[in-house]
């Protein structure tokens, strides 16, 4: 089927992005070692902003003729784009926000490759080296603002949520925007777009002109969660683990809306970190919320956490149902406590260096069939490490659902098999089954075929 496409050339806005010849060659290198493939995939996802595709493989197949290349000029560069989705243009001219996002993609992919991955200064086998790399990527993107009081709320939740849940996420965003709180999300649709949309109205009413709508993504997921139009700062982290670390080190509190396997992964990530003994005293407001119609969803999540991680994990969050004002007030109070705590220790407001993140939460987890089969999902280990392995299990389900590589692996080798203690597998199977029943695995109207099999 033919889809409307546009060819164009664009220059960077504002300061010119200047690349060396070696950097340009690396980007244009279509071999496995080059950056071109990842750049093309992320650029296509950005150009597809506003579409209803949540399938990286389908997006690449739909726009097979899409091509993007760098034209180097003496005074800077241009992007030469062929076969771009027409949704990115108005009257033949590229939408400004999408234009900006394309150069954010270019910035992050070049910087990460040249300054982080290939740089011996960063020891990516060590915890401190990874945390330092995350800091440098965020600083290079200009998102660490040293002169601001803490006010950045990370909002997590599904890209496939129903209308009531989406409207509710907007109401919460609005209540937070009225209180001068900025929003950071995974940058996609659904529960990532709603809070940003609400906050823009809250900020406008308070005449706050510098509202921040920070989107943090990674190459594997960006096609499924194309940046929504409100995102005014976009950062692409190299992998899911660094993306998650970026959320918890830049954000001052987290609000979790209903979602599917990806949201469960995020919940397990933050709980695993907060359960580490070294983090016992660190204030970190964490609120789960949704409309009245989502009450049962949070009952299931809460039960799953109780059954797998225990009552101690339940002490680290609050569940607030159907009360956007209360969510905003609680978050504001929680962030005030964060500010007092950081101030008393002379810690930075813009990056949470004090949070201890175990290597098990930082090491990239390739969701291969073998790795999924060998996950240690047993009770006879420290609870924060069980959380780390549960997070990996849900990460694999996300990969099999929407990531191009994961979907191709499922096509080739069949279901992922997840093994473990019966006391963990039972609740996990029940939770995943409820996500399927509530259409939380794919966008509404798309049939879902499970990519996993829980073996009890």
Describe the structure.
The chain is of the alpha/beta class. Helix 17 links the parallel strand 13 and strand 14. The model has no long low-confidence stretch (mean pLDDT 89). Strands 9-8-7-6-10-11-12 form a 7-stranded parallel sheet, with helices on both faces. It has a 3-stranded antiparallel sheet with strand order 1-3-2. A two-stranded antiparallel ribbon has the order 4-5. Helix content is 46%, strand content 14%. The N and C termini lie far apart (43 Å). It contains 17 helices and 14 strands. This is AMP nucleosidase. It catalyses: AMP + H2O = D-ribose 5-phosphate + adenine. InterPro entries: LOG_fam, LOG_family_nucleotidases, PpnN, PpnN-like_sf, PpnN_C, PpnN_N. It comes from Duganella levis. Its EC number is 3.2.2.4.
What's the helix and strand layout?
Elements: E1 5-10, H1 21-28, H2 36-47, H3 56-62, E2 67-73, E3 76-85, E4 89-90, E5 93-94, H4 96-117, H5 127-140, E6 152-156, H6 163-178, E7 182-185, H7 194-205, E8 213-217, E9 233-236, H8 240-250, E10 253-256, H9 261-274, E11 286-290, H10 295-308, H11 311-314, E12 318-321, H12 324-344, H13 359-362, H14 369-373, H15 383-402, H16 404-413, E13 416-419, H17 422-437, E14 452-455
Parallel strand pairs: 6-7, 6-10, 7-8, 8-9, 10-11, 11-12, 13-14
Antiparallel strand pairs: 1-3, 2-3, 4-5
Helix pairs in contact: 2-4, 4-5, 5-8, 6-7, 6-12, 9-15, 10-17, 15-16
Count of separate DSSP helical elements: 17
Q: What characterizes the major β-sheet?
A: 7 strands, parallel
Shape: globular
Fraction of residues in H or I helices:
40-55%
Estimated share of beta-strand residues: 5-15%
Order of strands side by side in the largest beta sheet? 9-8-7-6-10-11-12
Number of strands: 14
Mean pLDDT: 89
**Which blocks of ≥5 consecutive residues have pLDDT under 50?**
none
User: Span from first to last CA?
Assistant: 43 Å
Radius of gyration using CA atoms only: 21 Å
Helical/strand content category: alpha/beta
